[in-house]
Predict the 3D structure of the following.
Amino acid sequence: MAHEDHADEDTDPRRRPPASIVEGAAGGAVGAMAMTGMREMARGMGMITQTPPEAILQERVPHLLARVPPERRVAAVQLAHWVYGASAGAGYGLIPTWLRDYRLSGPVYGVLAWAFFEFALAPAFGLVHAHQSRPRERAALFADHVLYGLVIGASPRRRLLTSR
């Protein structure tokens, strides 16, 4: 793979094409949606009792969640997660192209996002549920973050490059 095509955008972030950020955000939103499906399956199997977005909204900002009609709260929690996923995906789009071109970059990014929640956000927010979760629950959340990373790492650009 020729990396010199991207030398300018990789050395000067001001020259990074907005397309990579938009692509990352779109992939992040879709990745978060895929996580929703995987989490619902894990919830149905009894592996997850409360998702991280639910914990954050219920434990840290219950007044915001209380403003949402009860019949719309599930949708509000999902929307918050998808927006967060899109934001994290935009961050992935800021990573230099040569690094995003590695197949494992997406899954590694997803695992780092999981670790950031587990070891930084949850303790900082004082999320009781996150630190009382069972090993199966943590494993399910780890796996859905790997799925998230697979989705954001499956860029259309890479598919074009590898099909040449």
Observations:
- The mean pLDDT is 84.
- DSSP finds ten helices and no strands in the chain.
- The longest helix spans residues 18-44.
- The two ends are 10 Å apart (CA to CA).
